[in-house]
Amino acid sequence: MKCEKNICGLSQYLVLAGILLFALALRLGIGMFLGFNSGPDMEACGSDTVEFEHMAWSAARGDGFIAYPGGSPTAFRAPGYPLMLAGIYKLFGRQFWINRVVLSLIGMATCWLVYLLALRLRLSRGTALVAALITAGLPLQFYLCGHFMSDPLAGFLNVACCSLLVTGMCFCDRTDRSIAVPSDACSRTISFRSGFWFMAGLINGLSCLVRPGSVLVPVMLVLLSVLSFGVLFRKAVVPIVMFLLGMAITISPWTARNWFELDRFCLIASNGGSTFWGANNEIVANPGSEKWGSWITTNFDRERKNKEVMPLSNEVDRDRKEWQIGMEFVRTNPGRLPILLTGKFYRLLIAMPESANRIYVIIVGIAQVVLLPLSLLGLVLIAMNKKSRKMFLSINAQLLTLIGTTAVFYGSERFRASYEPFLAIYAAVGVVWIFSKLFSGKRKED
Fold it and tell me: What's this model's pTM, rounded to 2 decimal places?
């Protein structure tokens, strides 16, 4: 018990405070290195950063959600992060450094939430602290806080959603209704607290507005609930409906805005088609191409785009047309899909991201080489433990969402970034297991 409350003679709370300060310092430090009050860097992170920032400033001025100077209101980008940034601009003016401070604080808060989530999963305090430390030190986690990117906010919301889902799952017997890892006697009994799943739905709705791929989370929850609980899945029906209701409440105002602004139904964003077509075509399906498994601008087929897409005046119509062209490639090239999918997951898991900054590439590569094997070890250890693996249903639903998003679109280390906190929890399980084996061996020798 003493070891649980103290780490190397220090209070667990003091250790946690040190980890959080370390996380904040890393994130603020990278912001200063990149230029604390510099604008969005298109060369480093593409046009996303420039358009996010301009949308935020345009919204803060009351001009609408406009992606570039002289443009008209659009739904091309997911609105969550720009709207948050617009609120900051509304309060403090167009001060670029405030964005980096806010994202750094969000990144630090994510580490804290990872610690709490690990405890709710009934992992040891030491494991929870290791998970928070890993999250604090992962290069993508602190690097993206220095840019105008949505990933830090998406990661925070994903962990918050997952924490509420875990809190709303009760493995219990008739006399013990507390949340706990199920014993052998009660592992077949489960109940749900629908209120927590409703709140999780609200949070996941916000996550969808930041990164629309989160719309797959309820699908994965249903799939895993059926596989994990079997006939007991009927108990999860009401909570899942409440989860969907929460999502609908959060997303529907933006969908209504799109209807009135664009005169078309558009759930969240209208760039899915260009992303899908750019990730499913003859160039990215070629393993000899530099873009194998990645994404390429749809201008690669300029002739077809000018003929079939650009004449459409409504951006939602253009989006739907690009979806159709991408689906046409998928339908007519079934034999190339396994190679294309291999490339996508290679891009997702590859240690070396595409960047001109070689130091950054090396650091991310080293971290990835360490993180993935440890995460896989932790995943195996949890899967082998019948008493705890069902508690990880919500984490696995998030990771399956990442897999689904990659399969549909393309592989990228940025897609992985907002799900790395979950990998950090699994990696922490692996780290603690390795150290327990090492130290148990030493004690036997002594």
Answer: 0.92
